[in-house]
Amino acid sequence: MPSVRKTVLAAILVSATALSPLAASAETITGALAKAYQNNSQLNSARAGVRVTDEGVAIA
To answer: Are residues 16 and 8 in contact, defined by beta-carbon separation less than 8 angstroms?
Structure first.
């Protein structure tokens, strides 16, 4: 029966690891975009250019 005990222990360990918050360290798309907007000067200048263009568009 030591084999069954090892299997159960391994299953518990794998389940605990899979369900732990540390395992979910992947970044969301929204978070990645927010970081890019904060830290990328080229993106910020391009966004500013789009805002300037948008201000010149007539509202229907």
So the answer is: no
Whether 17 and 23 have beta carbons less than 8 Å apart is answered as yes
Contact 52, 42 (CB under 8 A): no
Query: Please, are residues 47 and 54 in contact by the beta-carbon 8 Å criterion?
Result: no
Q: Which two tokens stand for residue 35?
A: 């970081």
Position 47: which residue type? R
Provide CB contacts within 8 A for 58, sequence distance 6+: none
pLDDT tens for the chain, 60 residues: list them. Answer: 568 777 877 777 777 666 666 545 567 888 888 888 889 999 889 989 999 888 888 776
